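In the laboratory, one determines a bound structure by crystallizing the protein with its ligand and collecting diffraction data. In a computational setting the workflow is compressed into a single prediction: the sequence and the ligand go in, and a structural description comes out. We illustrate the idea with shikimate-3-phosphate.
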Amino acid sequence: MNARGVVRPPGDKSISHRALMFAALAHGTSTVAGLLTGDDVKSTARVLRQLGAKIATIREGSTVSIHGSRLKPSGSRLHCGNSGTTARLMLGILAGQHFRTTLTGDASLRRRPMRRVTEPLREMGATIEETGDHLPVTIRGGRLRGLVYTSPVASAQVKSALLLAALTGGVPVTVREPQRSRDHTERLFLHLGLPLQAHDGVVSYQPSAVSVRPFTLSVPGDASSAAFLVAAAVLAEGGELLIENVGVNPTRTGYLVVLARMGARVDRVNLRDEGGEPVADLLARPAGLVGTEVSAAEIPTLVDEVPVLAVLASRAQGETVFREVGELRVKESNRLELVAANLRAVGVRAEARGNDLHVEGTARPPRGRVETALDHRLAMAFAVLGTVPGADVRLSERRSVAISYPTFFKDLKRILG
Ligand code: S3P
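The predicted complex, in structure-token form:
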């Protein structure tokens, strides 16, 4: 099959959540173009509306106006759906509010760890009721104190929750992480003129008289969604694919670095800046791949791309090892075990050994049934594997792609003509 033509990935999921949250905190009307229309972002919009923000309907291709004002208590629980970013970042925002709120989520989100956020927020002075490490969590914010925190995990959600608590609570915070995670929150702070310092993996916010003012923003295409299109082009037998308007923030594009090492060069053209974020068009072509070792230090820059990189590794010559990917166990599914099990289910030698993932490449066509566990990134990664010659990859479901890339199957079909 050939992959060719021009395609645009949907709006960046991480930036869409943050844009809505900052706009809800600004007193006045902000306008945001390019928002992701996926279910996760709709979850953030829904909970912000429950807290009094006025957010127009989020439709593909539309510019959305958001009217923010002081947040108000909600009469009911905030349901964060499948979205870890909604739950964890909202806990940060709620830590700065003088009222009581309960957050919950779907079955997958209710299995995901929350203490990584509730513990430091409690240290900042928020009152939190929880049973174990999971949602539902009830939080009453208010009078906070500053915090200097060393996070045990490289997590943008933890870092962002603490920055949002500091912003809404008017207190200083310093966050140090073992490796640098995605920095969209920091970039938005700076883009909106909020005082923030970041160097050597340490981020500090000092409160000032500056408040969040209404803004206009254009959200770039999602680098993580683009990764599936890149992978389809790399595995194709011919053609050339132009993927337009992709965010190329270096804290998100580790997969392009790894792909280059595996033998697939993806060109970045038309590099520009969009609201403090680097954006480019990507030009991807078929390539013969070789296995590689992905180091622990690289993982935060490609944490959501491990499933699709593992799929690519299954078509490479030799072995690929992903070091220290234990965090994948607590994503939308247990991605570490499921990537390995699903690769085995289609005839690939793959195994989780401790916190490392090993994948042995093969030229045999992948054939078998894949269990997505309703995880959007597993569905998309294995759908891409299903495009190689002779493949027969059957997915347990396809609807989960609505979380981050509602038009994925339509786009995949179109580029493969
Ligand atoms: C995200 C951070 C990452 C990532 C998730 C989105 C964000 O999670 O996996 O898809 O928007 O901050 P962690 O912070 O748990 O690593």
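The radius of gyration is 21 Å. Keep in mind that any predicted model is a hypothesis to be tested, not a measurement.
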